[in-house]
Amino acid sequence: MISAQAWGATVEERRARLPCDELLPGARCRWDRAVTVDAPAAVIYRWLCQLKLAPYSYDLLDNFGRRSPRELVAGTERLKAGERFMSIFSLASHAPDQHLTLRSRRLAVTYAVRTDPAVSRLIVRVRFDSPGGRIGAATLGRALALGDLLMMRKQLLTLRALAELDASARPLAHSRRA
Q1: Where are the beta strands (DSSP E) in 4-59?
Q2: 76 or 128, higher pLDDT
Q3: At 124, phi and psi to the nearest 5?
Q4: Number of other residues whose CB lies within 10 A of the CB of residue 80
Q5: CB atoms near residue 91 (< 10 Å)
Q6: Is the dihedral of CA 17, 102, 138, 151 positive or negative?
Q7: Tens of pLDDT, residues 53-75
Q8: Which domains does the chain have, with CATH numbers?
Q9: Residue 1 has pLDDT above 60, yes or no
Q10: Largest Cα–Cα distance in the chain?
Q11: Quick one: CA dihedral 90, 113, 76, 152, positive or negative?
């Protein structure tokens, strides 16, 4: 069964603290998503920097019909706090090869890359400060969790495919996923 709150994320990943937790500590809604990526952290992070240009989800819906770039664009890895991402977010913080944390009025999102000798994981946590207190969080939060799951799943699978393609084209690419 697919959970709208925790698609693909392990128990350990859901328990881990991420930078977005500090931005909206009182947010009632929290969603975790994760995928395994057969690419080094540096390659995955470089593709995350591309989120400045496009959302990498359903381009017809969330990119005004324009195709998200399928090749890395020079300079997108140079990041500045406050910079726009996916048109609705600003960059709150980042650590090269580790995380990007984005913020909008009621949302905070961390895209984290975790690597051990066996596997790379791309983990995303969304924190949403739902209006309307507990009832708002229960009703609006559930609806938004489902919508976010559909869009975020597509985004993560697209970023994974692009990072793996890029990693396989490198002479020292590592094969870490069984």
Answers
A1: 6-7, 29-37
A2: 76
A3: -125, 135
A4: 8
A5: 19
A6: negative
A7: 988 887 666 656 678 888 999 99
A8: 20-169 (3.30.530.20)
A9: no
A10: 53
A11: negative
Distance CA 130, CA 58 (A): 24
User: Comparing 85 with 3, which gets the higher pLDDT?
Assistant: 85
What's the mean pLDDT in 116-124? 89
| Residues 124-150: tens digit of each pLDDT | 999 988 766 666 555 655 656 565 666
Residue 106 is predicted with a pLDDT of 87
Which residue, among 60, 37, 49, has the nearest Cα to 111 in the 3D structure? 49
Q: Which amino acid is at 139?
A: T
Q: How far is CA 141 from the centre of its chain?
A: 18
Angle CA(5)–CA(69)–CA(78) in degrees, nearest 5? 85
Which residues lie below 8 Å from residue 95, measured CB to CB, with a gap of 6+? Answer: none
178: Cβ–Cβ under 8 A, 6 or more apart, which residues? none
Neighbours of 82 (CB within 10 A): 9
Look-up of token digits 């895209």? 111
Q: Cα separation of 110 and 121, whole Å? A: 13
Task: Supply the DSSP string of 85-128, one letter for each residue.
Answer: ETTTEEEEEEETTTEEEEE-SSEEEEEEEEE-SS-EEEEEEEEE
H/E stretch holding 12 reads helix 11-15
Q: Do residues 144 and 136 touch, judged by C-beta distance below 8 A?
A: no
State pTM to two decimals: 0.86
